[in-house]
Amino acid sequence: MTLHLKLDNPDEENRLDHMAQGVIGTGANRPDGALKVSGQATYAAEWQRPDMAYGVLVRATVPAGKVEKIDASAVEAMPGIVKVITDPKLLRVPAQGMADAAPAQGNDEVLYFGQPIALVVGDSFEAARHGANHLSVSYLPQEARLDPDAVQTERPEGKQSSQGDLDGVMKTAPVTLDEVWTTPGHNSSAMEPHASMAEWDGDRLTLHGSYQMLKYNRNELADSLGIDPKNVRILSPYVGGGFGSKLGISPEAVAAALAARDLGRPVRVVMPRQQVFETITHRAQCRQRIRLAADETGKLLGIGHDNRVYNLPDEGFAEPVTQATPFTYAAENRAIGQEVATINRVIAGSVRAPGEAIGVPIFENAMDEMAEKLGMDPLEFRLKNIPETPPGQDIPFSSNMLAEALRDGAEKFGWDKRNPTPGAVQEGEWLIGMGMASAVRVNMLMESKARITLTAEGATVETDMTDIGTGTYAILTQIAGELLGLPMEKVTTKLGDTDLPPGSGSGGSFGAASSGTSVYLAAMELRRQIADKLDCDEADLTLKDGQAIAANKTHALADLVGETPFEAEGHIEPGDIASKAFQATFGSHFAEVAVNRHTGETRVRRMLGTFACGRVLNEKTARSQCLGGMTFGIGMALTEEMLFDTRDGHVVNNDFAEYHLPVNLDVPKLEVHFLQERDPYANPMQAKGIGELGICGAAAAVTNAIHNATGVRIRDYPATLDKILPYLP
Amino acid sequence: MKTSLRINGEERQLDADVRTTLLDALRQHLGLTGSKKGCDHGQCGACTVIVNGRRINSCLTLACMHDGDEITTIEGIGTPDNLAPLQKAFVEHDGFQCGFCTPGQICSATAMLEEAKAGWPSFVSDDLDDIDTLSDEEIAERMSGNLCRCSAYPNIVAAIRESVKETAS
Ligand code: FES
Ligand code: FES
């Protein structure tokens, strides 16, 4: 039996708060923990077959042109080389998130430096790598567009909006700001490189890959190969991080499948780290112009937010930089816009919190600067401008706890101890400053399915949903355990297999809420089946510790189930709830930095975030998600920057020696607090997304703190020493 | 090339291409896939194993250079049913998310604690005579060769701290 819900109305029942097991929300350890800490969790590159061959992708070394000739003969004559695959079905780019169809294919034309154009297959990894390094390719180069600042841009109609007269109010308002900021390209840098092992059984393909959204990936892979999706199975039970980089099927998967079909033996293709930088989606480098106008009391009269991003020709994705701008602060006059450049550079796509990850911090930099112009405390300035209802819409917020989050964070951080004068606090050679920012991220629900089977031994939850480090194994186990009255050890969660019911996939912070709701619905259906058996109303049924209690009688669940397992499927669809209330998650970031007066080096000394994301499903894993997001913020503020060669567009810093992720010592004690919130518009669990909120705004808390410490405004991210040192007091 | 290695207390024979790194030998030839490859260039620490008592990046060394060496990998530190105290502390403190960097973190921390016990100073040690009580900053510095993009860093420090306390008591 399937319990299907199309969410058209808010949840009035909030059933999870009335269950007895007491496992939901707790900081229970991850069920997958023991396997991960002992090296027994099997990631994509760890599937081995006796006759497996190894493939290494070869990249194009021109930014644009035609492939004139690939001469495979010399490489194919090398010892250990099986074949050079130059199939025109090879992917040029990875698919964008939820594309559900093949991305651009073909190795005749080159669109960017780093594009895969061939696969060298060998009996050993060493042989294949050697061959790939020696493949001879000639090109007919064409002129490339390499600099987003130098090419013509387009202003897509759907990306521009305005209200009132911003230009007018910028002329008449007593206090205004009009500044430009730039952020560089950012890389997801999941620790696990992209990897696939493909094996065919007749017409059927099984792919062990590392992917975030399997139901889409299956269709993308099938479409790329020209086969029926029914004949494709993808397994990704463990994913070594995603952050957007594994949303869509990527070149190594299709190459492995093509090679395995061609050779009649399993083939594994793992991307070297450099290839991940050169081929997989990155967050586009961006220019943002922000205009603000306010009256003397600090009430915002005008908001302008314009930006320029880019992508490859024919790629529809443009970083939604201003996604949170329309509803974060109130102002009657507004103009929001975007320009998109088309250039020959590795594909741009989703990296953790596409849009808000760079849009919010830059806007929060502007808010900080505006507060200074107004002579107001930055916290007060924000509190004064939080809208009652989403501006320009005639629906309410489902819940907006921005003010509470700002106040809570300020109090716990000790914001009142901040000296507002830049450069006023010194400790030896260090200049000390504090900064803050709001955190904002839209909230979404996606279609998702899950199945639960209840036997005398316990329950098994099954869905093709993935756990990319987000804690899916834990929370789905908890949801089922709570509703079915089972301790976590009695619930087994199976994920990451397209043979299981299609879940939402992991992306856009919607995974926990969407796939969680499908598990919730399946469990509710099982509760109904149990109640039927006991001849009572589901609402009168108490399930706890493997016991069913109804009408003051206790029955062992195992006895009730007996020989024939109970089975139920849950199916959630978004419905038109979004037209009834506007949903988002809110929070606040606070940071204290020390800037070295001799070197300009910035050290983050402490950071604190308060977040409201509806029901917290697992306090421990939710906190970890926030730690991750805040650390992404530290990286964005201080070190992360993709550099592109202006002559051929190649990624100059294509490894971890040169693309600087925060390391352990760069991350101080981080404090995370959650506000109690239930959002009935989100879903019946009343839980919202938390995987991305932690990054949205975080970098601004750091750069605003740098200003408070030194008086230096960072307009060109990241805040490396050269941008601070010359301007120190 | 024939190489014999003592891995997790067991004698293992290897006959691999001379270009095979110790990491690939473990993962591809010996079925020990616990050690991870995050970069293959000594930049991330995911491949950290302990060779003759010292932590090294196994991607940066060739297997054939280790004939007769004593190697400990994550598989030798503890199993799901019998986790080492440090592994338990990682689970308890959520010292990981995706888990990909985790075997490297745990091997690294295991050897790091021995280094600290032996009195090796680090970049943040103020006083070279007294480094046996490890501050959080000392732990963080000594673990900075192991990247974690999920950014479990504060939890990793907490997990290591707890296991230090446990061993001390
Ligand atoms: S894989 Fe060896 S250091 Fe990254
Ligand atoms: S747990 Fe994912 S990289 Fe460390």
TrEMBL record, chain A:
Region: Disordered; residue ranges are 148-168
Question: Superkingdom of the source?
Answer: Bacteria
Record-linked InterPro entries: Ald_Oxase/Xan_DH_a/b, Ald_Oxase/Xan_DH_a/b_sf, Ald_Oxase/xanthine_DH-like, AldOxase/xan_DH_MoCoBD1, AldOxase/xan_DH_MoCoBD2, AldOxase/xan_DH_Mopterin-bd_sf
Q: Care to name a GO molecular-function term for this sequence?
A: oxidoreductase activity
List the biased-composition ranges (Basic and acidic residues): 148-158
Domain (Aldehyde oxidase/xanthine dehydrogenase a/b hammerhead): give its ranges.
38-143
Which PANTHER family does this UniProt record tie to the protein? Answer: ALDEHYDE OXIDOREDUCTASE MOLYBDENUM-BINDING SUBUNIT PAOC (PTHR11908:SF123), XANTHINE DEHYDROGENASE (PTHR11908)
Q: What is this protein called?
A: Xanthine dehydrogenase family protein molybdopterin-binding subunit
Automatic annotation (TrEMBL), chain B:
Sorted alphabetically, which keywords does the UniProt record give? Answer: 2Fe-2S, Iron, Iron-sulfur, Metal-binding, Oxidoreductase
Against InterPro entries, the record matches this protein to:
2Fe-2S-bd, 2Fe-2S-bd_dom_sf, 2Fe-2S_ferredoxin-like_sf, 2Fe-2S_ferredoxin-type, 2Fe2S_fd_BS, Aldehyde_Oxdr_Iron-Sulfur, Beta-grasp_dom_sf
Q: Does the keyword Transmembrane apply?
A: no
Q: Which GO terms describe its molecular function?
A: 2 iron, 2 sulfur cluster binding; metal ion binding; oxidoreductase activity, acting on the aldehyde or oxo group of donors
PROSITE patterns in the record? 2FE2S_FER_1, 2FE2S_FER_2
Tell me which domain of life the UniProt entry assigns to the organism this sequence originates from: Bacteria
CDD domains documented for this protein? fer2
Q: Taking every annotated instance into account, which residue ranges of this chain make up the domain 2Fe-2S ferredoxin-type? A: 1-77
Q: What is this protein called?
A: 2Fe-2S iron-sulfur cluster binding domain-containing protein
